[in-house]
Structures are given as structure tokens and as C-alpha cells.
User: Which sequence fits this backbone?
């Protein structure tokens, strides 16, 4: 059963928009490099309903095993490591669809 991995991000005050854009581009660049990814989308929140969370990454994966493979994949680990210092708040949720 396919899995959607959702990550909501709130970037630290003062992180320039171009740096945020580079982080999101690095996330999108995981497609084709991490075999478990079926689809990956990123975007900025345009409402005030998420509080301080400003951006989202939605990753569709084949199944639960694909989620584990994605989270542990060296390419994903590197992107997450580069992103984390610029993030003030992060939330994640995983659902089967």
C-alpha cells in the first residue's frame, strides 16, 4: 500500500528565501536518486492555518518498506543534515493511502 510522508517546516528567522529555495530544490532533486520515491512535491504555505510552519515536503513512496529505505538513504540523510540547522520547527506524519 502506498505511503505519503509529510514534513512541515518552519524556517528560523533570518534564513534568506534563496536559501530556503535551495533546500527545497535539494529535496526535489532526491527524485531519481532515491529509488523508493514515487513522487515528491514541495511548497510554501499560503494561509495562516499552520502557525509557524511555512513549507511542506510531500513524498509518495511505494510502501512502508519504501519509507524506511527513504529515511535511511544516504542522499536523504545528507539533504536532511543540510536543512536541519536552518529549521526552527519540524513536524512529520506518515499515512498509507
Assistant:
Amino acid at each position: 500500500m502506498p505511503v505519503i510522508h509529510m514534513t512541515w517546516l518552519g524556517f528560523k528567522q533570518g534564513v534568506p528565501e534563496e536559501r530556503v529555495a535551495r533546500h527545497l530544490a535539494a529535496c526535489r532533486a532526491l527524485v531519481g536518486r532515491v529509488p523508493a520515491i514515487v513522487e515528491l512535491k514541495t511548497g510554501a504555505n499560503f494561509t495562516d492555518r499552520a502557525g509557524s510552519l511555512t513549507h511542506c515536503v510531500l513524498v509518495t513512496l511505494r510502501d512502508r518498506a519504501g519509507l524506511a529505505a527513504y529515511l535511511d538513504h544516504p542522499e536523504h540523510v545528507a539533504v536532511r543534515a543540510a536543512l536541519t540547522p536552518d529549521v526552527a520547527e519540524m513536524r512529520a506524519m506518515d499515512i498509507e493511502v
